[in-house]
Amino acid sequence: MPAAIPPPTAYDRYRPYRHWIEWGAWIVLILLGAASETMVVGMEMRRAGLPHHPMEPAVWEWSSHLVLLALVPGIAWYTRRFPLHLDTWARALPAWLVGSLVFCFLHVAGMVALREAVYAWAGADYDFGDWGRQLLYEYLKDGRTFLQFALVMEGYRFLLRRLQGEARLLDAPDDAPPDAPAERPERFLVRKLGREFLVAASDIEALQASGNYVNLRVRGREYPLRTTISAIEARLDPARFQRVHRSHIVNLDQVASIEPLDTGDARIHLRDGVTLPCSRRYRAALKDRLGTAS
């Protein structure tokens, strides 16, 4: 019989709506920013007595904010690729500096292209000014924007890990020699909302790579472990765990069936009903391990 699945937690209830809420929050915040900045710029220009068409502040601000919205997925990917942690922040900062420069260039290029298109449609010309001086001016703003967006994303991920629970390997014994080979972990320590508990390696049903983390699936729950899929594979018991995909490892005891696909790949069905992909590269090895006719 499949293992009993514990009742859903707040994180479990939130997860089905997670991407809708994340995208909704970014869309609302950025569009509100565009509307408010349009009003502010319009009032400032009228107060200064600067000649302008009433629609120009809207064109400037909405073109800028729409490009910002389009760049949000790129910032999310980049900050997952170069995460900022207390023990690695010094190594991540140069990458974040490069990311801010790329972000600024894409933002400026995109908003200028939109403005030129709108002005041309209206039968007018848009002048961005001297590119060297304007890029420096824009970077002073875009650098802060990139940092703010990135820190919001990192803070949000930190809160999710606290709510979800984050796993780590137990520390090696104090008397272990420094050149001793890494031992296979029998248990993992999970921290969740200030509480700690141990998870036996044999209870792990599957592992999935997710950026700089590997999610350990245990009794229907997932706990992120900061490592790579290759590093944790080398430390797992090969008699129990099998790599089935570049991003997935499965506990062989949890495999209920294997469904061949026309592409040469396969679909693995776990005992609790969850399915995992199996690429053709690993399918033959899995077949040999399980002795199936898939």
Query: What fraction, in percent, of the residue positions are helical?
Result: 40-55%
- The ordered string of helix (H) and strand (E) elements is HHHHHEEEEEEHEEEEEH
Strand order of the largest sheet: 6-5-4-8-7
Total domain units: 2
Describe, in plain words, how this protein is organized in 3D.
The model has no long low-confidence stretch (mean pLDDT 87). This protein is 49% helix and 20% strand. It has two domains: 10-164, no CATH class; 167-171 and 183-290, LytTr DNA-binding domain (OB fold (Dihydrolipoamide Acetyltransferase, E2P), Beta Barrel), CATH 2.40.50.1020. The protein contains seven helices and eleven strands. The radius of gyration is 25 Å and the shape is elongated. It is an alpha+beta fold and 294 residues long. A five-stranded antiparallel β-sheet has the order 6-5-4-8-7. A three-stranded antiparallel β-sheet has the order 1-2-3.
Summarize the structure.
The protein has 294 residues and is of the alpha+beta class. The protein has helices at 10-14, 18-48, 56-81, 89-121, 131-164, 229-233, 280-290, and strands at residues 166-169, 187-192, 195-200, 204-210, 213-218, 221-225, 241-245, 248-251, 255-260, 266-270, 275-278. It folds into 2 domains: 10-164, no CATH class; 167-171 and 183-290, LytTr DNA-binding domain (OB fold (Dihydrolipoamide Acetyltransferase, E2P)), CATH 2.40.50.
